[in-house]
Amino acid sequence: GAVVSQHPSRVICKSGTSVKIECRSLDFQATTMFWYRQFPKQSLMLMATSNEGSKATYEQGVEKDKFLINHASLTLSTLTVTSAHPEDSSFYICSAGTGGGTEAFFGQGTRLTVV
Amino acid sequence: KQEVTQIPAALSVPEGENLVLNCSFTDSAIYNLQWFRQDPGKGLTSLLLIQSSQREQTSGRLNASLDKSSGRSTLYIAASQPGDSATYLCAVKENSGNTPLVFGKGTRLSVIA
Fold first, then answer.
1. Judged by CB atoms within 8 Å, which residues 53-72 of B form the interface with A?
2. Distance (Å, whole) CA A61 – CA B66
């Protein structure tokens, strides 16, 4: 299957700093990628849809100024958590689909801890 | 709005048992359904993908069925092993094209040696 690579896998940062997470489609082009967040013992919840060459669309309740998404190429989307706070500590994971959008492929996820 | 429910939330079984995990979804108009495995602190591993026109898919000791009209899917694991211990997630895709998945909360499985 297609490969989606996400980095870093784990990051600890101080409160008030910003953290960038990268999501790459390694062997296919992805015009659309999705960013999810998972709190402990909860389901994965869609945060935003990343669209190559245009603005991301955010789900209700997700602050677009806090979670900056850039999808500058067909193989890379980045999520920047700005001015992170402890309540932003969570598991963030991206996904992308190949043309036709049949199967979703996921990155390895990023465990963010804000101290 | 689509909602996906997984029952039970947690399950502990002795090694060797056959087991069934359940998934239900409120809107039967889905494009496909996917079962994933998630190990603690890790990403998702896709196990089985069932298209809306299919009734079941099999891979090794895993068998997933889909009853689209009733909004249900089951994941059957035969001869469970300690290495099967993980959280199993069910997710539905509502449309064709590049659209996101709607996930259940998962079933946390422990297989005891």
1. none
2. 32
Interatomic CA distance for residues A14 and A114, integer angstroms: 6
Q: Is the peptide bond before B8 cis (omega within 30 degrees of 0)?
A: yes
- CA dihedral (A21, A113, A35, B86) positive or negative: positive
The rounded distance, in Å, linking the Cα atoms of B74 and B95 is 21
pLDDT tens series, chain B, 113 aa: 999 999 999 999 999 999 999 999 999 999 999 999 999 888 899 999 999 999 999 999 999 999 999 999 999 999 999 999 999 999 999 988 778 999 999 999 999 99
Tell me if residue B82 falls in helix, strand or coil. Answer: helix
Residues of B in contact with A100 (CB under 8 A): 96-97
DSSP string, chain A: ---EEEE-SEEEE-TT--EEEEEEESSS--SEEEEEEE-TTS-EEEEEEEETTS--EE-TT--TTTEEEEEEETTEEEEEE-S--GGG-EEEEEEEE-TT--SEEE---EEEEE-
Hey, which residues does B107 pair with through a beta bridge?
B88
**Nearest-CA distance A101 → chain B (Å):** 4
Q: In this structure, what token pair is assigned to residue A31?
A: 């015009």
For chain B, how long is the longest CA-to-CA vector? Answer: 43
A41 contacts B105? CB cut-off 8 A? yes
